[in-house]
Design brief:
heterotrimer, A alpha/beta, B alpha/beta, C alpha+beta, B: alpha/beta, Rossmann fold, five-stranded parallel sheet, two-stranded antiparallel ribbon, 12 helices, 7 strands, 9% strand, globular, C: alpha+beta, OB fold (Dihydrolipoamide Acetyltransferase, E2P), Dihydrolipoamide Transferase, Chloramphenicol Acetyltransferase, 3 domains, seven-stranded mixed sheet, four-stranded antiparallel sheet, 19 strands, 28% helix, elongated
Chain lengths: 329, 338, 416
């Protein structure tokens, strides 16, 4: 049975099903208990599972991350909610030096099965320290897996897969997606980590987009379809490990590649995608330079017009793709 | 003359509580640590191993006195100066040497090296190259213990320098708020690399920081295994019974430099000689003999056996298997998920 | 807002112009009315003045490059104005860009670059050109700054089905013309096909070591089989038979099967390696007005005679209409050239690279042959196989011919 849920409800349902299925799963974070989470993702889970399994933690991001690592080493499956992905910067030591590396440093003799959830992205007027997209930072670290589901369906399935996963998985959730709706099956299904999804078939240009940019790219694709430009949109879904094969196949078909992502353009995920295509057999199929549409080289501003201007928007995506397909770039 | 099984009634609790066999085993481990590090240092100087290492020579009493209280299902998190904790918790020196030599037979299959040697099977969750890195991890392991309703503990080794890290404060607070079974063992060897505690800490003792988190703390002579063990045993029992965390500060000293590149410019020769005179090993030997728990011949035999074990360990490591360079990315991810 | 600098028309019948010199560099200050660049025409160099004050940016057409009249060659920005990464014109154009068809804006077409320069081309364009043995120097680019796009290559290939590098001229036109009486000849311009034939066959004869093997096969059984198969052909609504097999169709099939039977001959020489092919693809020479084409019949081993026959008819029709696309004439390991219809009894053919062989098929001729010591009338044809000795040795070629003859003389084997 499937019915419509919001993205936030899909997360909550995945968390609840994971906790029901495995007593080792527990949630930790700031204000996730009776408050229900800053974005009401955990909601009333504390009433269903108790304070021991839906743990309010002190405002100690580094400490919480380390606690999650330690608990994971000792047999638990912690799911840690950061109030904003920006606060991962406070916990980088534990994420990058410990969670990501312990298995490797100990010769493969331990696992660190934890999940960290990061509400991310701009569009809420929360300004520079509460609006960043730092997914590519973490995707740079071997040992971590980084996912960015864009729909309620993928969110639930990938979060369940992340909780199953024996390795640390970082989940980036765009805050503007929390209220978006979509069909979600009731049962506890899995959507595999590491597999991109062709969200729209097209023949003139391949767009590889992440998170909310998948929706913006699909909207741009509809407008361009009326002009006879047929856009293929790939929802990358997982930044690491990246599903390069799906992108290569698509580019071989369309001969053009655009990467659309909210993180800062320079050294962002689009740089990696572009490089992989340039290094692959798809290079010989390119009939135009690769286009990257990413975030501005600036922090996210407060003023709403500036905030919009700092990340790719639909008209800019349309313009960029049109120029790419008509040979103007 | 046969040595008695336990000490006389007027001896301090440490010598009464433990059998002669247990105490001699403790001495053996202290020797193993000392010889292991001397052997490692020599191998380094001969160019047999690369990288760097942080020696704990002079601190063996705190390592062994602390880990004596633990069982296999208890956890420790260790530090960059962690060879002693590792041996104390029960690791095999030859496999540690193999790791030092970067061999597949090593505890971390040559991927970790000196700073990450850990025998996971004995509850060692890893030595840590990041000052303060292990503190929240120990709290997390203790949280798991509590959730799993076990009466094990997580023992967290750290140095005076780590107590200046934010992670220390976050970890102590969380352990205390949630009343978790953690024993925080501070090995205060007076220096964070070259900067003394006087120059880097606003309080005299690391233990002075515990009350801020509502946590009991004790200060002990870290060069006296009896002092260390008595405090740790009390803290461990307290934790096992659900009483929450304790901080034990062991005042001790490393007679070697911070690492291989240290030129000892920040401390005087007199200070080093003074602490060398307080070497925990002869001190422990003298007490064992004085209490009639071991003879001088037995002590010599323990030392000779430890030396032989270390020599054999180095030979084992030298003959180990070098990792295959094509396997550089092995164990970054779990195979079932990669 | 940036001011567009265009390539102006300075000559009556001028469609494109070549910029010979820029007087300012990208990022330099320019003054309205001062000379900005020079255009070279047949007659003279013209100096063009800057249309406004500001900073010169985005030079789209460099020195020595050519652009269409009216197209933007650079932009002048006000001081401090944000510089657009690409041509700002599109961004500034009001809604018209959205409303119009995306290809409505005329792209700058740059004529082929001078020889010696590496033309700008997309990876796909390069790849397509390489596959078709097309020199990019001869292709006009419609992309920004004259970049050759895949479509430009496709168009070039459509207009000249297989343009290869021009044949190396041993003597110049002039010096040859001087050998003849003036007025005693007409000069016919060379078209693409003639150039290709000249280049490829010269290359073949000069670089491929040919050797030749001949065999004579008796056709009587084949002709009988053909007659009965054609008689048995089903008919469509208008009573026309669905196939009419020619002797050539049998020859195609026989060579295809022989290549399967002797895989050592089903190869191509690839320089550093020899490609061993799994399928039998055979080119069949089709004479057309002014030259010939060699479309390839593919997967012969898997096709029936009637399928081959129909396909061959279609390919021949397309060849005569000059409508073959590269995928229809590229590849193959061998070829057939049949001059039997002209009464030629025996000849040798030049291998069409990268094929390893070509079969020259002569006319069917009635001869008395001894059968049990008595003369008996038989129809026979002589076929000569040219082989690339780099890839196919004498014995292998002989085996191929032997297999071919056995299929021709026992046509029922082709139906098995």
């Amino acid at each position: 049975m499937s019915r419509e849920l919001t993205y936030a409800q899909a997360i909550q349902e995945a968390l609840a099903q994971a906790m029901e299925a495995d007593p080792n799963v527990f949630l930790m974070g700031e204000d996730i208990g009776v408050y229900g989470g800053a974005f009401q993702v955990t909601g009333d889970l504390v009433h269903r599972f108790g304070e021991d399994r839906v743990m309010d933690a002190p405002i100690s991001e580094l400490g919480q991350a380390g606690v999650a690592v330690g608990a994971a080493l000792a047999g638990c499956k912690p799911v840690l909610e950061f109030q904003f992905s920006d606060f991962a910067t406070l916990a980088m030591e534990q994420i990058v030096n410990q969670a990501a590396k312990l298995r490797f440093m100990l010769g493969g003799k331990v696992n660190v099965p934890l999940v960290m959830r990061f509400p991310a992205g701009s569009g809420t007027g929360a300004a520079a320290q509460h609006s960043q997209s730092i997914d590519a930072w973490l995707a740079h670290v071997p040992g971590l897996k980084v996912i960015q589901p864009s729909t309620p369906h993928d969110m639930k399935g990938m979060l369940l897969a992340a909780i199953d996963d024996p390795d640390p998985v970082m989940v980036f959730e765009h805050k503007l997606l929390y209220k978006t709706k979509g069909e979600v099956p009731e049962e506890a299904y899995r959507v595999p980590i590491g597999k991109a999804h062709v969200a729209r078939n097209g023949k003139h240009v391949t767009v590889v987009a992440t998170s909310i940019m998948v929706h913006k790219s699909l909207e741009a694709a509809e407008t361009l379809a009326a002009e006879g430009i047929d856009v293929e949109v790939i929802d990358l879904r997982t930044l690491r490990p990246m599903d390069t094969a799906t992108i290569i196949e698509s580019v071989k078909k369309t001969s053009r590649l655009a990467c659309v992502y909210e993180g800062v353009k320079t050294l962002g995920i689009g740089a990696e995608i572009s490089a992989r295509i340039a290094e692959s057999e798809a290079f010989d199929y390119l009939d135009a330079p690769i286009l990257r549409l990413g975030g501005a080289e600036s922090p996210i501003p407060y003023n709403p017009q500036l905030e919009k201007a700092a990340v790719p928007q639909v008209p800019g995506i349309i313009e960029g793709l049109r120029n790419l397909v008509t040979g103007r770039t | 003359m046969k040595t008695p099984k336990t000490a006389k009634a007027n001896a301090r609790p440490f010598y009464q509580k433990h059998s002669a066999a247990e105490l001699k085993e403790a001495l053996r481990k202290m020797y193993l640590i000392r010889r292991f590090e001397e052997g490692a240092e020599e191998a380094y100087m001969r160019g047999l191993i690369h990288g760097t290492m942080h020696l704990s020579i002079g601190q063996e009493a705190s390592a062994v006195g602390s880990t004596m209280a633990l069982r296999n299902t208890d956890y420790i998190t260790s530090t960059h100066r962690g060879h002693g904790h590792c041996i104390g918790k029960g690791a095999d020196p030859k496999l540690m040497f193999a790791e030092f030599f970067g061999k597949e037979e090593g505890y971390c299959r040559g991927r970790g090296g000196s700073m990450h040697i850990a025998d996971v099977a004995t509850g060692n969750l890893g030595a840590n190259g990041i000052v303060g890195g292990g503190l929240p991890i120990a709290v997390g392991a203790a949280l798991a213990i509590k959730k799993q309703k076990r009466d094990d503990v997580a023992m967290c080794f750290f140095g005076d320098g780590a107590s200046n890290e934010g992670a220390f404060h976050e970890a102590l607070n969380m352990a205390s708020v949630w009343k978790l079974p953690v024993v925080f063992v501070c090995e205060n060897n007076k220096y964070g690399m070259s900067v003394s505690t006087e120059r880097s800490m606003s309080v005299k003792n690391v233990a002075d920081r515990a009350p801020a988190y509502g946590m009991p703390a004790v200060i002990v002579d870290g060069n006296s295994i009896a002092d260390v063990a008595e405090a740790i045993e009390a803290a461990t029992e307290h934790a096992r019974k659900g009483g929450g965390p304790t901080l034990v500060e062991c005042k001790t000293y490393r007679t070697r430099g911070h690492s291989r590149s240290d030129r000892n410019r920040y401390r005087t020769k007199e200070e080093i000689e003074d602490w060398k005179a307080r070497d925990p090993i002869p001190h422990f030997e003298a007490e064992l003999i004085a209490h009639g728990l071991a003879s001088a011949d037995e002590v010599t035999a323990i030392r000779v056996a430890a030396e032989a074990e270390i020599a054999a360990g180095i030979e084992f490591a030298r003959l180990g298997t070098d990792p295959d360079p094509t396997e550089v990315t092995r164990d970054v991810y779990s195979p079932e998920a990669a | 807002m940036a001011v567009e600098v265009i390539l102006p028309r300075v000559d009556m019948d001028m469609a494109t112009g070549k910029i010979s010199k820029w007087h300012a560099k990208d990022g330099e200050k320019v003054t309205k009315g001062a000379a900005l660049f020079e255009i070279e025409t047949d007659k003279a160099a013209m100096e063009i003045d800057a249309p406004s004050d500001g900073i010169l940016r985005n030079i789209l057409v460099g020195e020595g490059e050519t652009a269409a009249v009216g197209s933007a060659v650079a932009f002048i920005y006000a001081e401090g104005e944000a510089v657009q990464s690409a041509s700002p014109a599109a961004a500034q154009a009001p809604a018209s860009a959205t409303a119009a068809a995306p290809v409505s804006s005329v792209p700058t077409v740059t004529p082929p670059v001078a020889s010696g320069e590496t033309p700008r081309a997309t990876p796909l364009a390069r790849r397509l050109a390489k596959q078709a043995a097309l020199a990019l120097g001869g292709v006009s680019g419609s992309g920004p700054r004259g970049r050759i796009l895949a479509d430009d290559v496709r168009k070039a290939l459509d207009s000249k089905p297989s343009v290869a590098a021009a044949a190396p001229a041993t003597l110049s036109d002039d010096s040859i013309q001087k050998l003849y009486q003036p007025g005693s000849f007409a000069v016919q311009p060379m078209d693409g096909m003639r150039r290709t034939i000249a280049a490829r066959l010269t290359q073949s004869k000069q670089t491929v070591p040919h050797f030749y093997l001949s065999v004579t096969a008796t056709l009587d059984a084949l002709m009988a089989a053909r007659e009965s198969l054609n008689a048995a052909a089903p008919r469509d609504a208008s009573k026309a038979p669905l196939w009419r097999l020619s002797i050539n169709d049998f020859i195609i099939k026989a060579l295809g099967l022989a290549l399967q039977k002797v895989p050592a001959a089903n190869v191509t020489w690839a320089g550093d390696s020899i490609l061993q092919h799994r399928v039998s693809d055979v080119g069949v020479a089709v004479a057309v007005e002014g030259g010939l084409f060699t479309p390839v019949v593919r997967n012969i081993e898997a096709k029936t005679l009637s399928a081959i026959s129909l396909e061959m008819k279609q390919l021949a029709a397309k060849a005569r209409a000059r409508k073959l696309v590269p995928s229809e004439y590229q590849g193959g390991t061998s070829a057939i050239s049949n001059l039997g219809m002209f009464g030629i009894e025996e000849f040798t053919a030049i291998i069409n690279p990268p094929h390893a062989s070509i079969l020259a098929v002569g006319a069917g001729v009635q001869r008395f042959v001894p059968v049990n010591g008595q003369p008996s009338l038989a129809t026979q044809m002589t076929c000569t196989l040219s082989c690339d000795h780099r890839a196919v040795d004498g014995a292998v070629g002989a085996e191929l011919l032997q297999a071919f003859r056995s299929y021709i003389e026992n046509p029922m084997l082709m139906l098995a």
